[in-house]
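TA notes. Do not distribute before section.
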Amino acid sequence: MRLERDVAPRDRYGRELAHVWGGARRVNEALALEGWAVLCTVPPNVKYAERLERAQKQARAAGAGWWESGGFACAPSAYRRVPLTKEPGAPPPAAPAADQ
């Protein structure tokens, strides 16, 4: 495994940002293409953003990985903005409207 850095080595939370390579294979892209990863770009680190977006779209269209059962009720980034429920076992809250 090899890590390839982009512009910024860490995000605002101090997490390491890198593209992961396994030999000649870009692991990030392979996971997206197989439907097991969701695109999350952190500007200015956008070197492979278009390729990763294409891979995610292909996986979704093919019903691969998580997309086999219809994908997500809402995108993980939208879900994180929804207040948590206090009731154990309650269904997840609805996603916020797209225009918010």
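Switch to the second chain here.
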Amino acid sequence: MKTAAFDIPPADMIDRIWAEVYLPAFEPLRTKAAQRHVMWWEEFLALMQDRAVHKYVTTTDGGDPIGLGCITNDLTSVPLIEPAFFEAKYPGMTGRIWYVILVCAAPGNRDVYAELLTTMSALVDESRGIAALDFCSYNAVDRQLASVAKTILTRHLGRRIPVRSVDTQTFMTYDLTKGQR
């Protein structure tokens, strides 16, 4: 297993990452999370071509892609987050707030998640920064990925890392098919 950094991965690699890593990892979230997590092809391609985003691709020894991690400290390049929110929470940290856009591994490659998180954490650690990740409740609670991420980073960095939830979005339904009329 080898992880490499890319400004823009080669086109043939992007196609393979999409089909062999990204879609298999994110497709299950279509029925597990209210917010759309699966990017359209055009969105994925734009992310892969965005030079403000650091891309890390993990491959097998034979060169087959098995993991993808994307992180940026240019918060304006992430459409669904509000840079002002993070700047207000962490004054004076502009450029040192790193947003982990995604971390995914092809099925059957659990060690890749840890490999990608530790690789990307070097950017954050070198800048003495803040890493921000978001998890749907399925990934945070059912799969315990938020806890797993803390454990991985604590072991890798060799120190305790304060972690806190800074925001929560709750999706509510109001069932109007029930009750008397």
